[in-house]
């Protein structure tokens, strides 16, 4: 048996089309174009693709994108000042400060300064708290996109066992919250979990978000399970650079019921959900939601 391959690239393209139509309607009804400000401090070669794809997506969705590229040695105070300026700018509906930040900058301080109503990454503690108590707010893009892909292959998670590998604030924890909202029984596994393969084998839905290339093997997977691979790892194979997930796709695809590939799985959904969060923010700002 071979799994259904979940085409995140196609789902994301469909989502972008819908966002473009909704953004055009918002422009027609309220004269507003959703604006996304992206702040980059220093050059991170690994995130170059992300930046490029983000710019392409904003253009395609008819959103306005403002890029702020600062040198790696920019003092923290300058980044904080820029965030305050963007907080006050009515043309800016979303602010994304790309992570990781250089070491002289306290990321928690910067993320905590972003106005929660413009926090399209959903990283502000207020939005994290809203998600955990079930209040409306911004949901981080990767979990939001992953949940859309899961909903595309199953309509009922009630009572199912979902295992999330990884406890980060940006993926693991919010992903667990979303699955819990769907009435799944949720386990968050991490680097200290005892017998991780055995825990994974009990999962009806397995979300891998650890950042360890090819860690999850086919024999860790329950036959028929839904496998969502959040990892985007660059490795060398025969002297050539290659992008792989946290899941060993070739062995996993033989066991799973449905699985996301890397690339063209969760990655494009992350970007589409960033557009979606920015549109939602603009709608709320003009009272159109
Ligand atoms: N504040 C903040 N928010 C983020 O969401 C954030 C961040 N900082 N820093 C960097 C990481 C990385 N990230 C990616 C999202 C999509 C792709 C993506 O679209 N990947 C494609 C292309 C992969 C390729 O060809 O390299 C794919 O998976 O198919 C990649 C990487 C978001 N991040």
UniProtKB/TrEMBL annotation:
<comment type="pathway">
    <text>One-carbon metabolism; tetrahydrofolate interconversion.</text>
</comment>
<keyword id="KW-0486">Methionine biosynthesis</keyword>
<dbReference type="InterPro" id="IPR020631">
    <property type="entry name" value="THF_DH/CycHdrlase_NAD-bd_dom"/>
</dbReference>
<dbReference type="Pfam" id="PF02882">
    <property type="entry name" value="THF_DHG_CYH_C"/>
</dbReference>
<feature type="binding site">
    <location>
        <position position="232"/>
    </location>
    <ligand>
        <name>NADP(+)</name>
    </ligand>
</feature>
<feature type="binding site">
    <location>
        <begin position="166"/>
        <end position="168"/>
    </location>
    <ligand>
        <name>NADP(+)</name>
    </ligand>
</feature>
<keyword id="KW-0554">One-carbon metabolism</keyword>
<keyword id="KW-0368">Histidine biosynthesis</keyword>
<dbReference type="InterPro" id="IPR036291">
    <property type="entry name" value="NAD(P)-bd_dom_sf"/>
</dbReference>
<dbReference type="InterPro" id="IPR020630">
    <property type="entry name" value="THF_DH/CycHdrlase_cat_dom"/>
</dbReference>
<dbReference type="GO" id="GO:0005829">
    <property type="term" value="C:cytosol"/>
</dbReference>
<keyword id="KW-0511">Multifunctional enzyme</keyword>
<dbReference type="GO" id="GO:0009086">
    <property type="term" value="P:methionine biosynthetic process"/>
</dbReference>
<comment type="function">
    <text>Catalyzes the oxidation of 5,10-methylenetetrahydrofolate to 5,10-methenyltetrahydrofolate and then the hydrolysis of 5,10-methenyltetrahydrofolate to 10-formyltetrahydrofolate.</text>
</comment>
<keyword id="KW-0560">Oxidoreductase</keyword>
<dbReference type="GO" id="GO:0004477">
    <property type="term" value="F:methenyltetrahydrofolate cyclohydrolase activity"/>
</dbReference>
<dbReference type="GO" id="GO:0004488">
    <property type="term" value="F:methylenetetrahydrofolate dehydrogenase (NADP+) activity"/>
</dbReference>
<keyword id="KW-0028">Amino-acid biosynthesis</keyword>
<comment type="subunit">
    <text>Homodimer.</text>
</comment>
<dbReference type="InterPro" id="IPR046346">
    <property type="entry name" value="Aminoacid_DH-like_N_sf"/>
</dbReference>
<dbReference type="InterPro" id="IPR000672">
    <property type="entry name" value="THF_DH/CycHdrlase"/>
</dbReference>
<keyword id="KW-0378">Hydrolase</keyword>
<protein>
    <recommendedName>
        <fullName>Bifunctional protein FolD</fullName>
        <ecNumber>1.5.1.5</ecNumber>
        <ecNumber>3.5.4.9</ecNumber>
    </recommendedName>
</protein>
<dbReference type="GO" id="GO:0035999">
    <property type="term" value="P:tetrahydrofolate interconversion"/>
</dbReference>
<keyword id="KW-0521">NADP</keyword>
<feature type="domain" description="Tetrahydrofolate dehydrogenase/cyclohydrolase catalytic">
    <location>
        <begin position="6"/>
        <end position="121"/>
    </location>
</feature>
<feature type="domain" description="Tetrahydrofolate dehydrogenase/cyclohydrolase NAD(P)-binding">
    <location>
        <begin position="140"/>
        <end position="284"/>
    </location>
</feature>
<dbReference type="InterPro" id="IPR020867">
    <property type="entry name" value="THF_DH/CycHdrlase_CS"/>
</dbReference>
<comment type="similarity">
    <text>Belongs to the tetrahydrofolate dehydrogenase/cyclohydrolase family.</text>
</comment>
<dbReference type="GO" id="GO:0000105">
    <property type="term" value="P:L-histidine biosynthetic process"/>
</dbReference>
<dbReference type="Pfam" id="PF00763">
    <property type="entry name" value="THF_DHG_CYH"/>
</dbReference>
<keyword id="KW-0658">Purine biosynthesis</keyword>
<dbReference type="GO" id="GO:0006164">
    <property type="term" value="P:purine nucleotide biosynthetic process"/>
</dbReference>
């Amino acid at each position: 048996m071979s799994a259904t391959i979940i085409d995140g690239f196609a789902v994301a393209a469909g989502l972008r089309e819908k966002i473009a139509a909704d953004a055009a309607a918002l422009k027609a009804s309220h004269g507003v174009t959703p604006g996304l400000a992206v702040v980059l401090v220093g050059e991170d070669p690994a995130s170059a693709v992300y930046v490029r794809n983000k710019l392409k997506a904003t253009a395609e969705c008819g959103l306005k994108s403002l890029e702020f590229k600062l040198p790696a040695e920019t003092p923290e105070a300058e980044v904080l000042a820029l965030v305050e300026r963007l907080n006050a700018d009515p043309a800016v509906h979303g602010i994304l400060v790309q992570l990781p930040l250089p070491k002289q900058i306290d990321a928690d301080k910067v993320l905590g300064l972003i106005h929660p109503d413009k926090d399209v990454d959903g990283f502000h503690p207020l939005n994290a708290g809203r998600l955990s108590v079930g209040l409306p707010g911004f949901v981080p893009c990767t979990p939001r996109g992953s949940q859309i892909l899961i909903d595309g292959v199953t309509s009922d998670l009630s009572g199912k066992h979902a295992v999330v590998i990884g406890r980060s604030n940006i993926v693991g924890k919010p992903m667990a919250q979303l699955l819990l909202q769907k009435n799944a029984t949720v386990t968050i596994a991490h680097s200290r979990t005892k017998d991780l393969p055995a825990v994974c084998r009990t999962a009806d839905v397995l979300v891998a978000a650890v950042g360890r290339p090819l860690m999850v093997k086919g024999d860790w997977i329950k036959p028929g399970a839904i496998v969502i691979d959040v990892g985007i790892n660059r490795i060398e194979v025969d002297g050539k650079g290659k992008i792989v997930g946290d899941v060993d796709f070739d062995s996993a695809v033989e066991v799973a019921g449905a699985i996301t590939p890397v690339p063209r799985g969760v990655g494009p959904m992350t970007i589409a959900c960033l557009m979606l969060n920015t549109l939602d923010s603009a709608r709320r700002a003009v009272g159109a939601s």
